[in-house]
Amino acid sequence: MATLAECGWVRYVAGVAEAEAIVSEIRRIGDLLGRRTAGRGGALQEFVRPQTADHAHPRSLSARYGLNALPFHAELSHRPRPCRYLLLGCIEPGSPGAVTMLLDWRTLGFSPDELHLLEGAPILVRSGRRSFYSTILSPDRAFLRYDPGCLEAVDERGQAALRLMEHRLASGSPEVHHWRQGEILVVDNWRVLHGRGPTDQGSGRRLARVLIDA
Predict the structure, then answer these.
(1) pLDDT for 151-175, tens place per residue?
(2) Is 66 helix (H, G, I), strand (E, B) or coil?
(3) Which has the closest alpha carbon to 84: 192, 185, 165, 3?
(4) In a designed cystine with 174, which of 52, 103, 183, 193 is the match (CB 3.0 to 4.6 A)?
(5) Are 34 and 213 spatial neighbours (Cβ–Cβ below 8 Å)?
(6) Phi/psi of residue 148, each to 5°?
(7) pTM over 0.70
């Protein structure tokens, strides 16, 4: 069985079906990895489901894309340091279910010059009053900050960096995960970007989410 260190993500079957038990198992695994951190809503654990643009948080990807496919992104890219791990547990897969897509950015074949561009081109990270300037790739190349909902180029180099990301992500070969009740995904958020396939408003898909700093 592949490990988190080998693949950047791992699937785990909780062996329970009740929502409370699944959340408890996610918290247990998360506490082994690091310290829980609050999501956009301020909670240490959240339940997420597909939302129409009208009902989504105004600065979220759902506010821009609604029930259409959500593009690849790193969780909490709007913060100075994105969370290290993302844990998702399936409370209800929904019908039709919306797949989760996973893509390791290290497999996208960036050249040394392209990596230099990603770690040097200035990017404005939109986060309300806490907006700040940064780069897509951290100076130590430990993590990739990417979320088309909050990143904005400030010059031609930034535009080139964002175009490069869009091109490489479009040509990548992601893993596609079809959810089953009780499944848990543990994702290295510094390494693996994730997205969501299109869905219906009434599909009923419901995931529990816990974010971990390490």
Answers:
(1) 999 999 999 999 999 999 999 999 9
(2) coil
(3) 192
(4) 103
(5) yes
(6) -60, -10
(7) yes
